Amino acid sequence: MPKEKEYVYLPVGDFLVERVDRTTAYEMPSFHLHYKYEIYYEIEGTRRYFIEDSAYIVHAGSVVLIGENQIHKTGAIGDGPSSRIVVNFSAAYLAELTRSFPGVDFCGFLNEKENHLLHTLMPRQQNYVYALLRQLLALADDTGRQVCAAKKLLLGTLLLYLQKQCRLQRELGCGSGRVTNCLVDQVQGYVVQHYAEKLTLPQIAARFYISPCYLSRLFKRTINLSLVEYINGVRVKAAQRQLEKTRRSISEVAADTGFSTVAHFRRVFKEATGLSPQQYRQYSLRQTREDADEGE
Q: CA within 20 to 30 Å of 179's CA: 63, 103, 199, 294, which one?
C-alpha cells in the first residue's frame, strides 16, 4: 500500500497536510473511510464529492469537511486542471488543545451533514483559509517541538474559523449544496433497508420500474458512485458496527451484512478502510480500552 494511503487509512499517523496539482482529470478509484477528520480546500477546478449518502459539486474556493469514519470519494468534472489542499488528522492529534480548552468543541461540527460543503465563502474569507493552509504546508515536514505546537495551534484556529463560517452559512439559509434526485434518494433508502439481502442492479431497477442501464447512469452521474459501490459502502459501515460491538465471527459478519463470500467481504472491507476485518476489530478494541483509561 502506498505511503500516502497508509497515512490516510491506518492508525500510524495522526496528521497529514498536502497539496496536489493536476493538469488532467483525476478520478479516485474507490470510496474510502478512516477514523480521522478531513478538510479539503479546492484551489482550482470543479469536482464532484460524495460523502456518506450525499453528493456535492465543489468549486474553487469551497471547503469540504469530512467527519470521522465517513465514506467519501471525489471525482472529476471535465478534463481541466485542478488543485487542492487536504488536511487529515485524528482526534488524538488535538488532544492537548482540547484539554486546554475544555468548553470548546473543535471537531464536532465536522461530523454534521449540513456542514459537508462550505460553499459561501467570500474572496477575503477564502484567502484567509488558504493562508492558514499554506502555513500548515510550510511547517509540514518540521518535527521540532515548537513547530509541532505551532501546527496544532494553526489547525485549531482554522477549525474554529470554519465552524463559524458553517454556522453563518446555515443562518443565511444558503442550503447544504447537496445534489438531489428523487429517484436516487429512493433507491438509496431501499438499499439502506435491504443491504443484508441479495441485491442486484436488475432487481433494484425492476422494483423502481426503470431500465438497469438508466439506473446505473443516473446513480453514477448523481452521487459519483456506482450502485454496486454504494451498496458495498452501506455494507462496510454495517460490518464495522458489528465488528466493534459484537463477538460474531468474520464469516457471520460477512453473511449478516450481505456479502456473498468471506473473501469478497475481506477484499471490499480492506479496500475501503485499509485494514482487514480482523485488524479493524483489534484496532477498535484497543481504541475502546484507551478511551476507557482516559475516562478514569
A: 199
